[in-house]
Amino acid sequence: MESTVASKLEALLKLQSIDSQLDEIRRVRGDLPEEVQDLEDEIEGYEVRVRKFDDEIAALNESIAQRKQSIKDAEGLIRKYEDQQQNVRNNREYDAITKEVELQKLEIQIAEKKIKEAHYQIEQKNSEIEGTKHRLDERRKDLENKKHELDQIVSESEDEENKLENERKNAASNIEDRLLSAYSRIRKNVRNGLAVVTVKRDACGGCFNTVPPQRQADIAAQKKVIVCEHCGRILAGVEQRIY
């Protein structure tokens, strides 16, 4: 049992060491990965906005074409009614045709007003598109610069990172699922990513709270997996002081 627990703790310490090295490599990148992702999301939002404006302009142009056709149809009806007025038999027929002509002229006026409004809307949307495309170009340049910067940093440590990733995979394969799951959960919940630590100078190597002598003796015996009662980190050993 002693040997089994000791080997588990040794495997966890090895995994923690590898993860700490990977954390350090990724820490050098700073916020660049998040900045790149934010810029990509922002660019996608601008592209969606431009496509929306284009669709709205297309719909407005279609409505303009329809209203222009309506005007032509109304003008055709007016000519027809005016011809009919030449052959009316009484004032009642003349007044009825006159009302139809006036109605068609009103339809033309409304259509022309709607066309004018649509042209204004198109002008406004084109202005919005121009501004959005300008911001889009700026963000694309920013993204290109950030990606170049990130790629340079990644390329400098790519070989080492790949090597560590392979080592991590091998190290993780030697740890039972339940313990590996607990390790991953602790890493997510602590700020510095240290899930497995040793006792140094009578204190937890993670939160630096004092570990009582009897508990240190239990940790050193490695008969069971013990966690810090303050921070929940796994305590994998006790480092001896050198006097």
UniProtKB/TrEMBL annotation:
Stretches for region Disordered: 129-169
> Where is composition skewed (Basic and acidic residues) in this entry?
129-151
* Source species, domain of life: Bacteria
The record, for Pfam families, names: Zn_ribbon_9
Annotated coiled-coil positions are none
Using the record's annotation, list all stretches that form the C4-type zinc ribbon domain.
203-235
Know the name of this protein?
Zinc ribbon domain-containing protein
Q: Which species is this UniProt entry from?
A: Pontibacter locisalis
